[in-house]
Amino acid sequence: MLLEQQEVDLDPTARRVIEALVDERFDFRTVQGISEALDLPEATVQEVLDGHDDLVRLSAAPGRNGEALYTLRSQPVTTREKLAVAQTALEKSVS
Fold first, then answer.
1. Can you give the residue range of the structural domain that contains 67?
2. Alpha carbon of 36 to those of 6, 17, 29, 78: distances in Å?
């Protein structure tokens, strides 16, 4: 597993949350999705994600409903994220 290869020292809860991001079925995960999958409070999941910016990054593109999306920092920035950044820059320059 990715975390074992990197020899990351995490408490058991943090390890579970970070491993949820390794799940190949998803490119990005929401706090709610991880919370439901792991049966953990959303606040706990958010705390882990916020506390491990060395392993986790927030996507520049929001989810379908505007929610924050997270992935592993090792994952490349997607075209969708690049377009979201460009769109935000354009909107700011016009307003």
1. 2-94
2. 27, 11, 11, 25
DSSP-based three-state secondary structure for 27: coil
Q: What end-to-end distance do the CA atoms of the chain give, in Å?
A: 46
In this structure, what is the dihedral angle of CA atoms 64, 66, 67, 69, given to the nearest 10 degrees? 60
Q: How far is CA 28 from CA 10, 11, 14, 52, 68, in A?
A: 21, 22, 17, 16, 9
Contact 20, 52 (CB under 8 A): no
Quote the number of domains for the chain.
1
Q: What is the pLDDT of residues 74-89, one digit of tens each?
A: 988 888 878 887 887 7
21-51 confidence digits (pLDDT tens): 999 899 899 999 999 999 999 999 999 999 9
CATH number for the domain harbouring residue 19: 1.10.10.10
